[in-house]
Design goal:
The protein is α+β, with helices and mostly antiparallel strands. It is built from five helices and 13 strands.
């Protein structure tokens, strides 16, 4: 998150209307809005590739991946912009569905940045766990090959954490029945000091 806007308090309605025309995205937290920082090429590569892979493997299903410009309503006073979010269409048409907001994601991905590491691992982890239908929360590093997956157990309050750091490892997203290897996620990422090549040579 960046610094809050100068306006002291925003209603949800003001925020949602403002975001439709704002050239900069903002997250909304208890009446304050925070400008989203610009992201690196590696950040974009991970988010775009992962969302594209997921969408290809979800072809023909009720579920769909979205990136960047789609907000998640975490609570009535909290709106975040995940890097990737997957939602599944309900069996019946929702008349008042908001084209800019998702209420019931099943999978959320954040790509780790230096400025967002604490927020992604603490605040967002805590708040995302309150979403009743969310089954997996994923944090992907852009600085090394590492993906953290938090999984809800049996639709309850218990969550497990698993860390993947082997390029040959495959992550199975139980929430959507899709498997993705780390090599697919990081195939376009350009690390300093040839980290990917070193990883491959160690195998």
């Amino acid at each position: 998150m960046g610094m809050p806007k100068l306006k002291e308090y925003w209603t949800v309605e003001e925020y949602l209307e403002f975001e439709k025309t704002s050239p900069v995205r903002h997250e909304y937290v208890d009446g304050e809005i925070y400008a989203m920082a610009g992201e690196s090429k590696n950040h974009n590569r991970i988010a775009l590739d992962l969302s594209s892979i997921i969408n290809q493997r979800l072809a023909g299903s009720r579920c769909e991946a979205f990136i960047e410009d789609i907000k998640v309503r975490v609570s009535p006073s909290l709106y975040y912009y995940p890097d990737v979010v997957v939602a599944c269409a309900p069996d019946t048409v929702v008349e008042d569905e908001d084209d800019y907001v998702i209420d019931d994601p099943v999978l959320i991905v954040e790509v780790l940045s230096k400025s967002t590491a604490r927020t992604d691992r603490i605040e967002k982890l805590r708040e995302y766990k309150n979403l009743p239908n969310l089954r997996e929360y994923v944090i992907a590093s852009q600085f090394n090959v590492q993906v953290e997956v938090y999984r809800r157990q049996n639709a309850g309050e218990d969550w497990t954490k698993q860390i993947y750091s082997d390029l040959q490892s495959e992550i199975h997203f139980d929430s959507i029945g899709v498997a993705v290897s780390l090599e697919e996620i990081y195939r376009r990422v350009r690390f300093p000091e040839n980290i990917l090549e070193a990883e491959r040579e160690d195998k």
